[in-house]
Amino acid sequence: MKLERSHHVVHGDHLITRSPGLVVYVTCGDPNLTTSRRVILSAIDAGADVIELGVPFSDPLADGPVIQRASERALRVGTSLADVLKLAHEIRHERPGAGLVIFSYLNPVIRFGMERFASEARAAGVDGVLLTDMTIEEADDYRRLMQAHGLSTIFLAAPTSPDARLKKIAEASQGFVYAVSRTGITGTHQQADLKGETMRLVRRIKKFTKLPVAVGFGISTAEHFREVGRFADAAVVGSAIVKMIEENPGQEAEAVGVFIRQLRHGVI
Amino acid sequence: MPARKSKSSNPVPGRFGAYGGRYVPETLMAALEELESAYTKASRDKKFHRELDRLLKQYAGRPTPLYFAERLTRHLGGARIYLKREDLLHTGAHKINNAIGQALLARRMGKKRIIAETGAGQHGVATATVCALFGLQCVVYMGTEDMRRQELNVFRMRLLGAEVRGVESGQRTLKDAINEAMRDWVTNVRDTYYLLGSALGSHPYPTMVRDFQSVIGKEARAQILKQTGRLPNAIIACVGGGSNAIGIFHPFLNDKKVKLIGVEAGGRSARLGDHAARFEGGVPGVLQGTFSYVLQDDAGQVAATHSVSAGLDYPSIGPEHAMLHDSGRAEYVSATDDEALEGVKLLSGLEGIIPALESAHAVAEVAKRAKRFRKSDIILVNVSGRGDKDIGILRDNLKIG
Fold it and tell me: pTM of the full predicted structure?
């Protein structure tokens, strides 16, 4: 039986249905899959609209030290793309309304087989896919396969992307466009100029699309979340969540739940 | 899984058959486009070439000799062996050819900060050297394992004014240094030039690095014709990322009778993790921006590698080599650590030339192969670098005296 999101058709749909939306990234298998499952359910219950299910990779060159360490922990227990798809299936079963996106570097997907990946991701009830190192220029076959299986393709847009690229990125994206808040790698060590560079990027993207725009990289506090909510449709929180998991062994799900409620409603 | 199909009649820039391309975080795409356009303009500019030629000649020491290795030839008892002496270049290896070219380009682009990765340290030293020459800020990323085994080069870089940043992630070798250099680049992309040292990475790097290294093959082709009146039967070069090999192969690609042989690091065994022979156990995939053969496990995680030579100790290979491998135009073999160490001894004892451990892999292959050729045949071996940097490793591994 195919599991699908209960309240709407996925293909071409907006994955973010309330404003501001909250997208939460979790490195699956950090420190093990059981914990990831609990963390993700807790995040959804606390107010995450979309979960990015991170596939650990040996060479995460777009990631800062926090997600690098998480990937190492997840790989140490042998977490594979197949495991992440299985986890997605379980989450979909328990939380039919949540948005689920597979977030990966390209190589594990190539090794798995692009077509097999599309078909199994769809069967698991996944809504969309974001591949960090997949550029729009190289994406023709990938987009065709994902679309054939009803999966949204989400692409990154960067402050350094000229308008001509943003237009193509917007056209190739489904579900939402992921705006990278600043140049650099993931992590909370480096602050974005949200009101300047980031807001200008979101405005430029919005010239080319009606899709929701989610802002990520360096978003870690309720204040960031509020600020992003003023000009974008959603915020992506990644390293801050992964850090919560790292710093609260045994209490990961609870800590993440509290953190997300504070992001949404309160102050940090 | 290549997204674009290219036919040889209408090649896509940056594609080598199915291989190559651009697989990077979006933040870097504008920088790669800027680099491609700057390089295209420079490569059509006579002034750029004049300046490059002048520096290669007066500063780096080109042309390098093509030397008939008479005693090695006699000892091996087969083909006549000629050595292309890249080891005689300033800084001790072919890496300076590319470093000068890219530093000139960076200067044209108005970039003041240069970053680079290094494995054996030869590319790091070459980069630190050209940065000193042009007065540019220089940061070199190097795995701490490589810093340990190539400590002389670390000191040389620092002496030249470069900042060497140790990389503690992964296996702490070349691949991890590239990851860290890319993280720096993605953060400082607006004012930083990434001076990549091999024919690897995203377009335009594999093409650009190959072009800058093709001076090796162009010279060698003219020299062998002048010295012997004919082309060689075979050319042998070691292949890490593959820049010295593609540099000497490329000008001979259309000479179909010239056999091209690349030698990968066979390490200590054929088991995954014990070598860096990408064509013996690697499968096509994407690592660090390009689609090529990658040593990896069943889940697509990049495998550990091992080689006695830090410069060959890398799990992927330049995309043009992947194409040459698949088309059969070039043949790829491997030499083990022990064979490479023997190669060092052989060339040192018979010719008075101490090759780098990387280049010794090519020497090891010619030692195996020379006898299968006729005595009138010619084999050209690229001695891509000299062994001074390896003295510590050689002392530990070779039982002498």
Answer: 0.95
